[in-house]
Amino acid sequence: MLISFQSVIGQPKAKQFLTGSFQRQKTAHAYLFRGPAGVGKKTCALAFAALINCLAPVNGDVCGRCSSCLKYHSGNHPDLLKIEPQGTTSALKIDQIRELKKTLIYPPFEARFRVVLIQDIHLTMRRKEVTNSLLKTLEEPPADTVFILTGDEAGDILPTILSRCQIVPFYSLPYEQVTQALMIHDHIEEQTAASLAAISEGSLGRARLLYQEKLLPLRREIIESILALAPGTPDAVQAVFQLAEKAGDTKDNLDELLDLITSWIRDIMLAHRGLSDRIINSDLRSLLPAACHRWDHEELSDKLQRISLARRQLLHNCNRTLVCEVLFFGLL
Fold this sequence. Notes:
By secondary structure, the chain is α/β, with parallel strands linked by helices. It folds into three domains: about 5-170, P-loop containing nucleotide triphosphate hydrolases (Rossmann fold, 3-Layer(aba) Sandwich), CATH 3.40.50.300; about 175-210; about 215-330. It has 15 helices and five strands. The protein has a five-stranded parallel β-sheet with strand order 2-3-4-1-5, covered by helices on one side. Helix 4 links the parallel strand 2 (about 80-85) and strand 3 (about 115-120).
């Protein structure tokens, strides 16, 4: 798909602001695209980078045919620098910033603007050495360089970083848009697409992750098993061991799986209060009566605390399967 604002789903305010600043020739030296994960921040950043370097823009968007557009489309433009968090800490490293500074000494190879895309800046805020070095770069940027930072809406970002960037807010996408995108671009049938849109809370990126990693079927298997099993029985012990092994195998996506289970428990709590119209996991609606009959509000609150404890244990690199075993026994 051509990198353009037309390829960005939703986000009309962000697109209008960016195309307007380009048409008025008011391109800033630094932008912060801030909002939920998976709603188009990176796609919009690439579209804006392509636009400000397009050789023949048309109606506030790229032409899609010039040499610059073709290089952006292929992902091989020499003046686009992508800097992503690395390693198990998922944060920028000081060596990345130092290497960037060396690059910025020289002018762009061929484009009007060199574009530096720095993703997930909120993950780096605890690394003072990195943030201080980046801050100095933003304070004295080269005239031919545009920085685009992306950050989560809930993440802490230093006021000194915020003050040096044009902040462009991004929002969760309407569920209908996510559903349509999944049906058209990912060829997912309508009911599944609608469930993914609601469960991902308007994040197209998260919806695609849940589908590609088959997390919804695993979530259903875990929940149906927990509902069907009786604590302390041989069948329960064997089933929990098997489920824990499957959950542990999700590796980096285990946190997402725990999010899904958490949202289901909150759905049960809503159903207890007569608020079933506000549940997220609509595809599991048929399981709510049995869940409400089995657990009261206090027991459900205890289960949420057990999930929180499991998350903290996983942060300390505990054995994933063992953590899941303890958790699932506690959820019975």
